[in-house]
Design goal:
With 170 residues, the protein is an alpha+beta fold. The protein is built from 5 helices and 8 strands; from the N terminus they run ββββααβαβββαα. The longest helix has 15 residues. It is globular and about 50 Å long. The relative contact order is 0.13.
Length: 170
Amino acid sequence: MNARFVPPMALAGVGNVVLLADDIPAPNQRCDIHGPDGRALWHAVDFADVPRVINMFRLEGNADWLGQVFVTPWESARIENAGEWEPLGAADGLPLELRDGLKPLLRFTGTDLGTGSQTGCISVACGTWSADITIELALLHLDDFTDGSRARLAAVVGYFYGVSLVRGAE
């Protein structure tokens, strides 16, 4: 596989993006977006939705997204073996235990919102554990997210659902 710069027609208006693939993916091909250090910035987004995701974070001034980013399409074997999955929901809860009385610090690592998915879920991680969870479960555990992840989650939910998450006085 060769890294190459993406032609302007594939990612109209988005600069400084390197596609790590031999061919331009299909619009519905799942991709991951990485920073120059190899750290995952976004997981499992349709190729057609890559420009919106990149532009959203660049407009917010997120430093991780301002430089060069790399788009890596999923291999076809990974897609075929993916099978049907269901995100963890409110009835499932989070399979994380409290540590020394402290709530787990969840990180918001991506979303499938805006890709036509009916699941409405986000990807989260805590240490070596990661999972896809429903928006409902994420909002039930909003206080368990790190400050930056909580702010991103609130912004993404607000953007996709046209709402503003406002807390009342405690």
